Amino acid sequence: MARYSEVQAALRDNQTYVSGRGVGLADFSRETPFRPPSLLLETDPPLHDRTRGLMNRIVTLGALRAVAPRWQAIADAMVEQLLDRGRFDAVSELGTAFPLAVFPDLIGLQDEGREQLIPYAAGVFNAFGPRNALFERSQIAAREASVWVAAACKRENLKPDGWGMQVYAAADRGDCSEEEAERLVRSFLSAGVDTTVNGIGNLLHAFALHPDQWQRLHAQPNLPPRAFEEGLRWIRLAVQTFFRTTSRSVETPEGTIPEGSKVALFLAAANRDPRRWENPERFDIGRRASGHVGFGFGIHQCLGQMVARQEVECLLRAMLPRVSAIRLTGTPERGLNNTLHSLATLPVEFEAVKAEVRQ
Ligand code: HEM
User: Which residue CA neighbors atom 19 of ligand 1 most closely?
Assistant: First the structure.
C-alpha cells in the first residue's frame, strides 16, 4: 500500500493489520525472528497497551525540557567548531555526532563503546527487509555491536539517572518483569539512533538543495518545528517502509488480501501522495505537514518523536544565527539500507553569518 489514505487506514486498524507477526518482511508465525521481538514495535494489544503505557510515562516533554539547555549548548559548540573547520562531512560530523553526544546520556548508557549503536541499528533496520546480501553483511558487521548493546541494556550497566534505569524502576513497581525491562531499554537503542542520524543528514541535504528554504527559515525563526515536519514528509527523512500482517482476509477495491499476508506500507510514498498533498514534490517549510506518516500513525506511532524533534530543533537553533548558507562541496553518497533512507556521506561547507549581523 502506497496511497496516503490506505496506509493511514491500515496503520489505524491494528486488529486487522497486526504488528505482532513482525513489522518487516518476515512473518513471525512462520519464521523465527532474527532477535527476540520488540515488546513495543512487534506486539499487539493487550501487551502493547501495557508496555507503551509504561514507556509513555518515561518519555515526557518535562524530562526533555530538563535536558534542552545542555543539548542546545552542545549543538552551539558543534556548529561553531564546524564553521571554523570549513568543509566537513555532515553525516559523520553532525548527523551522527550530535545524537551520539546527547542520546546515550539521556538513556544513561555506559561511556565506553557508544559508537557501537550505529552498526547495531543499521543491522536492526536491514533486518526488516528481505534476507538479502545487505542483511547478511550488516548482521556480520553488527555482531560485536549486538553483544555491546545486550550488555548496555542490563540494570547493572546503566547510570542511575537515565531513562534506562526508569524502565527498571517500573519493573521494581511490578509494571513489567526484569526481562521485559531489559528488552524495553533495547527499544530505545534500536529505534532512537539511526533514525535521528539519518533524519538530520537528510534534512541538511534538503536545505543544501533548497537554499531559498534556508533563507526563509532565517526570515521566520518560528519555522524550525514546521521545517522538520516538512522534512519528514518531503525527503523521507528516515523510515521508508514498515510491514503489517493481515489477521483476517480483507476485501479491497483491487481484490482480496488473504489472511496471513505481509503488507508493505510505503510511508514515504504516502507522504508524497498527490491525493493528499498539494504539490507533493515541493519542499516547502511553510507547509502544514502535520498528518504525515513519517512517524507512523495510530497505536505504534513513534515513541521517540519528541526526542527527535528536540534534537533537530536544537541543531537548527544553533545553526540559524551562525550559518547563512549550506553548500554541497561534493556528491553525497547513499548508504544502502533495507528500510531507512540513508546517506553515507554529505560533503558540505557552512557559510558563516557576517559578524555584524550576528551581533
Ligand atoms: C527522525 C527520527 C525518527 C523517525 C523518522 C521514526 C519513525 C518511526 C516510525 C515510522 C515508527 C512506527 C513504526 C510502526 O508503525 O510499525 C516508530 C516507532 C517507534 N519509534 Fe521512532 N522514529 C524516530 C526517532 C525515534 C527515537 C529518537 C526513538 C527513541 C527515543 C524512537 C523510538 C521508537 C519506538 C520505541 C517505536 C515503537 C513504538 C510502538 O510500537 O509503540 N524513535 N518510529
Answer: 302
